[in-house]
Amino acid sequence: MPCIAVEGLTKIYEAPEKEPGFLNAVRSFFSRKIRLVHAVNGLSFSIEEGELVGFLGANGAGKTTTLKMLSGLLTPTSGAATVLGHVPWRREAQLQRRFSLVLGQRSQLWWEIPAQETFRLNQAIYGVPEADYRRNLGELVDLLDLSECLNVPVKKLSLGQRMRAELAAALLHRPSVLFLDEPTLGLDVVMQKKIRAFIKDYNVRHRATILLTSHNMDDVAELCSRVVVIERGRLLYDGGLKDLAARYARHKIIRVDFAGPAPDDLSSLGTVVSNGGTRAVLEVPREKVSERAAELLRRWPVEDLTIEEISIDDVVRGIFSGSERGAAS
Amino acid sequence: MRKYLAAYGIALQNVLQRRSSLIMDRVGGVAVLASLYYFWLALMNGHKGFFGYSRAQMISYVLAINVLRSFVLTGRGWELVGDISGGRISSYLVRPMSYAGYSLSLDLAQKTVYLGSAVLEIAIFAALVRARFYVPRHWSAWLGFAAATAMSSLLFFVMEFMVSSLAFWTSESGGPLFCFELFIQFAAGAFFPLDVLPKVIRRVLDLSPFPYLVFFPINIYLERARPGETLRVLAIQGAWLAVMVFLASRLWRRGLRGYAAEGG
To answer: Quick one: CATH architecture of A250-309?
Structure first.
């Protein structure tokens, strides 16, 4: 049985609509227009125990809404889901004791007092025995380099320190399922690396199942061998990160070294990425790549020509931005 | 139970940590106490009593208002409204605990500090102005007052929780709570004893839970209640509490079903 199973999950919101301007504000006071938003639309996938899966999509694709349904915050309009065999929106304590949700923009730490106090509160909430609490806390403080932050009021911590304390608070009860929403948002590069190393370590060490959303390409590339990509609430891709490019890049790259100076105008062959000296780089529609390569060889003296896939970074960035360039829509 | 005790402990620390906010709140309380005291002193100038209250009883009513404002009419309504409309309750809803129980723990922590402060303020104020206040002759008045105050504190918590839950539906969620707070000060007797009001209004108010929050508990303390009145007040408070718990839990469950967990 999969650790997380999602079948036809759908969430429709009612969103009030208002045209700009004072008159429209008055009009909307008396009669409010409601628009139905399909945030998640018939989504299905499953995740086995111990997997670390990237959950990708552009802003508004429905990632956070899905995470909120899987953690029991939202009740879906239709469809089914189980996490560790429980229906999450029933909010059963047996399930709640075994998972954690970390929202990058949300804090569960008490702002005015040291993070250690929130840790103690979570110990009581999750019923963690004292010996386990001390062991888990010691391990988390070591791995997340938190020793200097424990007794400082949370409001005095830097963003990076706070994010690490946030992770510690979420993991003190050793959850076997972890939903991470943008865990590296706003952090500097060094801190991002630390957090990523920690997530990987937690996944391996405790065989934890992790579903991670991130707009940070490095998070995805370093942590996730499998990705689930959604667009407008629907499943777009579910599989290996490497296969994503081959399947979803609409273009390929042709790198060509000419025997003499590169011709000035190559735009009839594709999008010119660069053109200088004797070398040019072109982005060419996938289906036209052989034809354009042959044309290059026929029209100019060429020393070397290579055809490459668009980098995985560009494909995923294309998905994030919803652009047509890197990914299919 | 341990988790709610832990929440009480952490909230107690938090209230004490927010010193400036605590001091401002208490200064505001003392300002209300002083203005009501001098207002009634001026009204009673030359009179032995007023609306059946002796001078000492009326002074005591005013002083007791400060205690009941601090222990009964104090709550986390605005924080709850902010938590709901800003999506902050999400982090509590995913943890194995009851949000209402957690909220009650936080409420009690705030009330503990405010009660301690109110008693101290009254002692200092009464000493400064040399107020002669009423001291109940019979222990049953003390006991009845303590029990009725505890009940009314719980009743106010549930009512405020219910009104704040409307934030699930109203995006401009402060409105209902603002009206509730304003009305309750008047209807509970937190400005003046309700005997001052015309009989018709009194009768209507008596059909509501509001006078059982401040007016009746103080009347028990002032031994103005008829024999058996204390038990009647406690029974009515209990009945209102049951009704409010039922309504609040239904409203909360419905609110959660439609909760959009906004704000990321």
So the answer is: 2-Layer Sandwich (3.30)
**Do the bridges between strand A251-258 and strand A78-83 make them parallel or antiparallel, or are there none, so unpaired?**
unpaired
Q: For position A144, what pLDDT does the model report?
A: 85
Inter-chain CB proximity A73 and B17 less than 8 Å: no
d(CA B106, CA B10): 8
Chain B residues with CB-CB distance to A122 below 8 A:
95
Residue of chain B whose Cα is closest to the Cα of A124 = B3
The highest-level CATH class for domain A4-245 is alpha beta
Instruction: Please indicate if any CB of chain A lies within 8 Å of the CB of B95.
Output: yes
pLDDT tens-digit map of B29-72: 888 888 888 888 888 887 777 788 888 888 889 889 888 988 99
- The answer to the question of residue B249 being in a domain is yes
Rounded CA gap, B198 and B207, in Å? 15
Locus of tokens 């005015």 = A112
Record: contact B257-A64, CB cut-off 8 A = no
Which residue of chain A comes nearest to B88, CA vs CA?
Answer: A106
Task: Tell whether A101 lies on the interface with B, counting CB pairs under 8 A.
Answer: yes
Contact B74, B68 (CB under 8 A): no
Count the Cβ atoms, other than its own, within 10 Å of residue B203.
10
A197/B contact by beta carbon, under 8 A: no
Contact A106 B257 (CB under 8 A): no
pLDDT band at A178 (very low <50, low <70, confident <90, very high): very high
Domain of B80, in residue numbers = 2-257
Q: How many domains is chain B partitioned into structurally?
A: 1
Checking if the pLDDT of B172 tops 80, the result is: no
As a whole number, mean pLDDT of residues B179-186 equals: 86
